[in-house]
Write a structure and sequence with these properties.
The chain is an all-alpha fold. 83% of the residues lie in helices and 0% in strands. It has two domains: 133 residues; 28 residues. The protein has seven helices and no strands. The radius of gyration is 18 Å and the shape is flat.
Length: 165
Amino acid sequence: MKLARRLFYLSLVFSATAFAFAFIVREYLVLALLPSLVAVLWAVAEIRCWRWAAAPAFIILIVLMIPAAALGAHWLYLLIGLLAVLAAWDLSRWMALAGRAQRLEDEVLLAGTHARRLGWVLLVGFLLSLLGINLQIKITFGWAFLLALSLILALSRLVSFLRHS
């Protein structure tokens, strides 16, 4: 549980820093305080075991991306912040589920396995986001629909494979 907790706090720091930096670069210093405040409140809620606070904090941090993007923040700050918030939310949910379990066999191994899977998901998400941002292909709606449908099917197969492994 210590590994998950440390990674959770590290994710909060990364997300708050990335979002705050996105506002600071555009010289909106007051708005830069909001992500840090939400991250601190989320951390305090986690310490006090207020598991309900994870969802509102997650939503608020995601919604804070809207004014940052509207003000012209660089996409890299927003992407790093988004991935870090997703990691923090996932780790928060994992800690809540692990805390409710009656007995965990080899908790260190479970936490390490979850952290490795989360790391791979974040890496793939980052690389696919970079690819999507930097690659422009002109296709018709029919081809885009077929591509989206095949991606949904592939992702559902991947999720079912990961659940069975």
